[in-house]
Amino acid sequence: MIKEQRKKRIGVFDSGIGGLTVVRALLEQLPEENIVYFGDTARVPYGTKSVEVISRYAREDAELLLSYDVKMIVVACNTVSSVAMDVLRNNFTVPIIGMIEPGAETALKVSRRKRIGVIGTMATISSNAYTNALISRKKGVTVFSQACPLFVPLAEEGLDEHLAAEIIAREYLQQLVSEKIDTLILGCTHYPILRKTIQKVVGENVVLIDSGRSAAKQVEQYLERHDLLNSQQDRAEHLFLVSDVPQKFEELGKRFLGRSLGDVKKVEL
User: Fold this and answer.
1) Is residue 96 a contact partner of residue 72, using CB atoms and an 8 Å limit?
2) How many domains does the chain contain in total?
């Protein structure tokens, strides 16, 4: 029974393609694990929608993954992680890990002067989820937040190191730089694609935190603690699902995942 539990997939969902950076971190951290990923490409973006709509989408995404008999769910969407984690945990019994807590905990560990910046979608920033997670865990922390909506299309269009990306990054990040932050949380799964440009703008002394990588480590710790790590010798299986335009997802996905996705399947919610 335990052996069968270990072989079950890790379910991962996001509003679209950005969550593949979280899958990438999971593949690096846990290469033996089977993964099923769902990108809700028919309803992207989530970051501009109301809390009620985001919560409904999140429940439907989780229900889809549960139909694949997953052993846990990773919410690879900072927007959902910011506003709908309680909704998910109150409706489902499967273990659920989001982006906020892992990212905040890592930032607090590495921050020297406890001056931490957070960038994300408008919904993530407006929720104050990262700010609340940081200040509730450590006294004396000062948090500076900035929404960076144009980073998403820049990442998807492959303009992450283009001059336009640098100009926009300087516009978005100049206030955070002036506040002398020493740590910056990349609070959107698209933002690691722009890592080089963001680092150039904020300077080498600012530590960038990829919440997806932090979440992958937390997933490993959870599975290890509950004896659910997959130890099978067979090659791990990775299934990619979308709610619309699988061809475009497949084309863009390689940049985010760092490898070919293979066939991408369209599913109905």
Assistant:
1) yes
2) 2
- Phi-psi bin for 230: left (phi > 0), alpha (psi -120 to 50), beta? beta
Residue 53's H or E segment, with its range, is helix 51-66
What tokens appear for 193 in the block? 């694609």
Q: Which domain, by its residues, includes 252? A: 2-98+213-266
This prediction has a pTM of 0.94
Q: What is the 3-state secondary structure (H, E, C) of 133-171?
A: HHHHHCCCCEEEEEECCCHHHHHHCCCCCCHHHHHHHHH
Residues 205 and 217 in one domain: no
First to last CA, the chain: 30
Q: What pLDDT tens digit does each residue of the chain (269 aa) get?
A: 567 889 999 999 999 999 999 999 999 999 999 999 999 999 999 988 999 999 999 999 999 999 999 999 999 999 999 999 999 999 999 999 999 999 999 999 999 999 999 999 998 999 999 999 999 999 999 999 999 999 999 999 999 999 999 999 999 999 999 999 999 999 999 999 999 999 999 999 999 999 999 999 999 999 999 999 997 767 899 999 999 999 999 989 998 999 999 889 999 98
Residues annotated as catalytic (active site), given as ranges: 77, 188
Please, what's the largest Cα pairwise distance for the chain?
Answer: 56
Four-CA torsion 107, 110, 116, 117, nearest 10 degrees? -60
Task: Note whether 33 and 87 are same-domain residues.
Answer: yes
Distance of alpha carbon 28 from alpha carbon 162, whole angstroms? 27
Shared domain for 221 and 189, answered yes or no, is: no
